[in-house]
Automatic annotation (TrEMBL):
InterPro entries reported for this sequence: MoCofactor_Util/Proc, XdhC_Rossmann_dom
Protein name per the record: XdhC/CoxF family protein
All copies of domain XdhC Rossmann, residue ranges: 79-219
Length: 233
């Protein structure tokens, strides 16, 4: 691989940025396409690259007279769960099994215990402290379920500003209306706030904490794998 391409790819990995290495199989020439770049001029290649950024699957594409290999490099998806509640006890292990890198945060040490969350990256700290070493980014799903604005609001603001692919918050419509007022006062736009999934989770008629966890996880996966559909929801 060309040294400059390798340098760019390594930088993308360090910065948790999505990239597709496009290589002409006839000439060996390559180029790096970053997510958010201007789409390739060839419509077939542009569509293939856009699909690759969603699916994460590498493969060969025929574009005009060229046969190209698309090598996709996506950051591993993360899930940050704010709140060591019953829903989280079901959601955290399910999300981990699905392939998410899970971190669970709750400063309330009575809830955030190893006994309740064995095997989970658990931080009994305030979100500002717990996320200092790994800030929320575009490949993070943020799930806020404490019902406590003092705990939930900071990570919600951070997730919306960072463009996290999924942002969900537990609470009734009245609770969310008050949340909207607070986030507006914090300087977020109506468009940003409108990205919050509230009520949280797909509408499957969930009742138990386990069912709510299933609904949340399904909604987060849909936002990751079918972003266009999620945006139009």
């Amino acid at each position: 691989m060309d040294a400059e391409l390798l340098k760019g790819l390594n930088a993308a990995r360090r910065n948790r940025q999505a990239a597709v290495l496009v290589t002409d199989l006839a000439t060996g020439e390559g180029r790096l396409v970053m997510k958010g770049d201007v789409a390739p001029s060839d419509p077939v290649l542009a569509e293939a690259v856009a699909k690759a950024f969603v699916t994460g699957k590498s493969g060969v594409v025929e574009a005009g007279e060229s046969r190209l290999f698309l090598n996709v490099h996506l950051p591993a998806p993360r899930m940050v769960i704010i709140g060591a509640v019953h829903i989280s006890q079901a959601l955290a292990p399910m999300a981990a099994m699905t392939g998410f890198d899970v971190r669970l945060i709750d400063p309330r040490t009575a809830f955030a215990t190893e006994e309740r969350f064995a095997g989970i990256d658990l931080r009994a700290e305030w979100p500002e402290e717990a996320l200092a070493d790994r800030p929320i980014d575009a490949y993070t799903a943020l799930v806020a379920v404490t019902h406590d604005p003092k705990i939930d609001d900071w990570p919600l603001v951070s997730a919306l500003k960072a463009g996290a692919f999924y942002v969900g918050a537990l609470g009734s419509r009245k609770t969310h209306a008050r949340r909207v007022e607070r986030l507006t006062e914090a300087g977020l736009s109506a468009e940003q706030i409108g990205r919050i999934a509230a009520p949280i989770g797909l509408d499957i008629g969930a009742q138990s904490p386990q069912e709510i966890a299933v609904a949340i996880l399904a909604q987060a996966v849909a936002a990751l794998r079918k972003p266009a559909d999620a945006a139009g929801a």
